[in-house]
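Per-record layout

source: Pedobacter puniceum
name: GTP 3',8-cyclase
length: 314
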Amino acid sequence: MEGIEDIYNRKFKKLRLSLLDHCNFNCSYCTMGSDNVASKPQQKVDFFVKRVAKLHQYLQLDSIRLTGGEPLLYHELDVLIHELNKLDIPEITLTTNGFLLAKQASKLKNAGLGSINISLDAIDELTFQKISKRKKVQEVLNGIETAIKVGLNVKLNAVIMKGINEQEILPLLQYAFKLNIPIRFLELMAMGHLHEQAASQIFTKDEILSSIAQHYQFTRAIRKASATANYWQTQEGYFFGIIANESTPFCHDCNRLRMDAQGNLFGCLSSNKSVYMADEDPEELLKQKLQYAMKQKQSLKFTGSSLSMLEIGG
C-alpha cells in the first residue's frame, strides 16, 4: 500500500502515540493548576498494536514515540513495547517526565525500547517545584542516570519560560554535558490554556543562545530533514538543541502524525479537530482519514490550539 503526500511533499513517517490522558506532574505549561486524575480508562495493549500495525502497513513508519500524559503510568508499558517491536518499525522511543524511570528503565530496555526523551525544566528544587507542582527533582535525576546506565539513548528536554526558569539554562546545560547527553531547550508552545496567553512567557531561541554564549562558544550543526530541533556544537564537542516553534518554525517538512489514547488522529497540534481511527477501517476509509489529518498541517508556522498537551503528548 502507498501512503499519502501533500503539495509540499510531506508524508506521515513518525507516529506520536499518547497512551493515556493523565500525569503524575502538574506542569504549569500543560495544565491549569488542578491535580490530574485519570479521566478515561486505560486502553488494552491490543487496542494500540492493531492501530499502529495498520498505520505502519500503509505509511511504512520510520519511528513511533510513546507519550502521554505520562506514559510510565501505563500499566503494561513493557508489554506494549515488546509487541510494537514485532511490527518492525525501525525506532521505538518514549517521552517521560522521568519520575518513575529509575524503577522501570531496565525493564523497558529489555522490552526493546531504544531511546528516551526526559523532560527536565529545572535542577533547582524550588524552581522544579514551581513548574511541576512536585518535589524531589532528585527522583528525575536518578531516572536519567539509571536510563543511561542500562544503555538507553537519552536526551533531555527543557521548556524555558520567561521570568520562571531562564536562569536554569546553564545548570541544565552543564548537567547534560557532565553526562555527555544532548539537551534541547524548547520555546513555550501556545497550547491548551496558554493558547492565547503564551506570548508574554516565551523565552526565544535568540535569548537562549545569548544566555549560552556568555559561557560557551559554539557553531551551528546541519539540521536533519523533518527535525524539530536545530543543534549547535560547543568547542568542547558537546551538543545542544533548540526547538523553536515560534522563532524557527519547522512546518515545511513536518512528517509527524499523532494519535491520542482513544484512537483519534491529529495531523497537527495547530488543530484540535480529530478523526477517529478504528482498527477495522478498510484501506480506502483509512486513506480518507489520513488525508483529512494531512490537511491540518500548517504551510508556514505553528499557530497553536486549545488542544491540551496532557491529552496529546509532547
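summary: The chain has nine helices and twelve strands. The longest strand covers residues 153-160.
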